[in-house]
Amino acid sequence: MAAHRKTLVIFGAGGDLSTRLLLPGLGQLLAADRDIELELIGASNIELSPDAWQEMLRTAFAKGGADPDAAESVIARSRYFVADATDADDLRRILGECATSPALYFALPPAVTEASCRALDTIELPEGTSLALEKPFGTDLDGAVALNRLVSRLVPESRIHRVDHFLGKSTVLNLLGLRFANRIFEQNWNADNVEKIEINYDEKLGLESRAGYYDKAGALVDMIQSHLLLVLALATMEPPSTLDSDDLRGAMAQALRATRLWPGEPQLVARRARYTAGTIDGRDLPAYADENGVDPALGTETLAEITLAVDNWRWAGVPFVLRSGKALDDTRKDIVVTFKPVPHLPIGLSGPTAPTRLHIALDPNGMKLDINVNGEGDPFTLETVSLEADLGAGQLDAYGEVLAGILTSDPSISVRADVAEECWRILTPILEAWKSGAVPLDEYPAGSAGPAGWR
Ligand code: BG6
Q: Looking at the domain 4-134, which fold is it?
């Protein structure tokens, strides 16, 4: 018998998240040998014939590179139900169909997920039920606290998977090996040696017909609130003794508890901007404000850049700049660690020196270390060269890892309740400053590097 036996119930099974990311991720997982015995149930409010459901699975699994035999055996046993995830009777019916412990994955908008959890609160859940909730977890600190209170009534914390797919990215998880398996980095990973750390996630993609969700979130909540703050936690936390869920998530929580907005004028430490019409790779993009479904009066930003401090012994005085935006001229998805200059450069060595910099690429996977050496020519003249490594892809994509955690009952890469709240706490002063109009909404043409004067 397999070590892990689960019935995965996907609510919103026919939707974009499920077909584009979850099911292909599941397909990848079926190809990896993780000792999981899986039953799959799809549910949504859309009518789907059994054949159409099976065909949808076949296509998505193939996209994930599933082993065809493993895929067919899951497809043949899988079932699909038309159901309202917010209706207690429908939920009871679906739970009654689960032969093994159910993992309920809400691939639904946050408000519907919340309503579904309220309905679950009125019925008895089978032994071993686990929950998987997509980001954003709540819409502000109070909302996250209330949602935590609700889900904690349903199942124990160890069976609540607040999903952030960045924690499933091999590039993000590589931070652990890089930092904690090499003396040379960890010894220098502190305020004595580091000048600043930047975490960038610039995308060329624009709104991509997601106004319904994005216009109420914006770049800060969509990207920084969870994804980049979790990357920050992994980059700044103390070395954990083990990578089990308590140690890993405890270390991340401790780092985030020390994190706050860098002191200073809000317009300098929490900048925001929105794209106007422009061209990216020969494709014309309308101004964000003119996109279908956008309410320009909401003043939603498509680019956010914030500076944070991690107030503890290790990091006091080091600025952390987190930035993410859409419709930019280039994709720049990396962590850049800039080291301080040497305390004394021996007289006699000359030439242009640049700071030693470590670039950790978040997509695609890679690393680059810029160092000063006496290169070719005069041995006393310095030049900056780069050591580069292409690290290749992980065995599973981010959603494959996320599902592996859920189906093997391992919450290590799920966001813990207190971590979700800390992420909102850190951003609260920014959300308030932006709401009060204290920070102007700058503009940049789509396809540019951002507003003039920002970099
Ligand atoms: C999602 C955001 O969570 O992450 C998107 O909602 C963003 O706006 C995406 O584009 C980026 O992640 P990835 O893994 O697709 O690069």
A: Rossmann fold (3.40.50)
